[in-house]
Amino acid sequence: MSDAEKDYFRRDVQGLRGVAVLLVVIYHSGVGLPGGFVGVDVFFVISGFVISQLLLRELQQTGRVSLRDFYARRARRLLPALALVTIATLAFSILFLSPFGDQQEVVRTSQATTLFVANAYLFLENTYFSLAGNPFRHMWSLAIEEQFYLILPAALMIGWKLTKRFNERRQLVVLGVGVMVVSLVSFAVGVALSFGYRLTPLPERFAFFGLPSRIWEFGVGVLLAIAPLRAKFIKKFSAAIFLTSSIAIIWSALQLESFTPFPGYVALAPVLGTGGLIVVGQNSERFSKILAWSPLARLGDLSYGWYLWHWPFTVYCLTIWPRNNFLALVAGFASLIPTVISYHWIEQPIRRNDQISGSRAIRLAAICVFVPLGFGLIVERIADTHLGLSQPEVVSRAGIADDCGFTVDSNQWSEEQCTFRVENSKGKIFLFGDSQARAFADGVIKSGNELGYDVAVLATAGCPMATRAPLGVSWCEDIQSRLVELTQGCVYQEGWTWGSNWCEGETTLKPVLVIIGNSVTRYMGDEYRLPTDDGGLPQDSASRVNSIVSATQEMIAKIYEQNVSTLLIHESPSVFIDAEISLLQPKSKIEARGYSEQTSRNTVVDALDRALANTESVATFDPASIICGADLCDPVKDGEIIYYDSSHLNVKGSEMLSIGLTQKIKTLIG
Predict the structure, then answer these.
(1) Helical segments of 126-197, H only
(2) Of 236 and 487, which is predicted with more confidence?
(3) Does 607 map to a domain?
């Protein structure tokens, strides 16, 4: 630690780091703290505060910032531990992860991590939660922090130079105003993007991963460094400030969820709470000692390394013991062992070595960047050999209508390619819905064509045929509206753009039947809840069921207004399929699952059946009637696998439904 860092070192701030890393580790284990991800936001505020203090001191003493020394310190502090974790994680991926895509994905993410662009990589991949098994997923926050460090020193130095004709007090005031303006703009951008305003593609995703929507969090820390709040009234109300700030962080960790629009205005709670604790710590010795409690401060010392190590341990634990959150928590704490070793034998000796500067710092950076990149290429080459393993047993989807749907990036749909025709057609049947509809397509097409009808498929993954878009999928609303227009006889307009409609142009005969295939368990979880009737988010199970049922009923009512019948195919019962084979798990796990234990699915299915039982021109069909026996839903029929993952049928399974579907279609349209 340099002399400058020692002068500004505060054990209470280290205690805050300890709190932040504990929140993240517990959250990632899945045992609790659904909003524990705000630990990252606590880190951002602390980073802005600590680094700005050092930079401002240098500006006050010399009138400039030595970028060479600054980045040499950053390189010594960050790169050795990151390189070690990256190499170790890549090495263990050979044992724990599948060489049929997973290892290759990990190598690409490790490359983005090493180059500090992991946030951009995850944004461009348009994914986060689908990479739950990626041991480098958590590195997006480190990338944002380092990108901020590329801006901050130069920005402060330019501001200082431009105000050099002022005295030091006025210089700090001008700098503070500038930081405040930038922070307010960043906050406004973050709120707008978090709630789906299309300032960028994938606005919600960009809000989460993008530096512009996160700058204000660092900015709060920078402002506290520029204008340290020391006043009698703060000392007088220090207890109230401490209590309010602590409650704000605790409330965030307990009440926020992974799919709360973030960092919208709710991020004010953890960010301002952290700021409040920093202020109290420098004004009250009593509360400073509480925050500097030795175990917390010690964890704060280890926080950087522990943050790097904990997630790979958690991921690899869950590959061996899936869904065992308690063991995941144990694994997260077990990662303190390599953390302590790395801290004492690598991080601290290199960090304290002021001789590593200039060309030596460049060499250190080069080693810490190129060695992990090179090792990643070796791991990728090894993975490409498939390690002597055979392809997973599970039959891939490969259905005839797999490409018949929109995506968040594309508004193109080929009506010609996605309409499966017969000679002398009696009319057209539409199949709408999300990924479940796509999985049912082969069976629906078979039944419809055999009965003499053309079948057109438009199934968009993640977007149900209902009247409300799931949480975080605002683009789905436009698709739902367009599907209703197709039931009115509107012709799909090529070149259609988001926000426009199809009914301004040519019309044709209406379909004779709309078949809907929607997931239900997907929308029962926290991730993709359907809003309630009043636009709020359902919290308990009963309100989530009601949201799904009412949104489905409303959509069916809109279809019925066009004198078109509807057949609702319920979500397939789930089975257990883990096709991610590895050296430690050389065979796919394919197991039957009891029907009665699928409480969430069955509750919604029963509620939909009751709600639609007496609705004219509507029928429902449950694939469980064909797939499940007395109480066992088997993914294997007649020696063949009929699923391609735990909840979606493959082509074989879909075609098995055609006998039951044919009877239902006959009942509705003759």
Answers:
(1) 140-162, 168-194
(2) 487
(3) yes
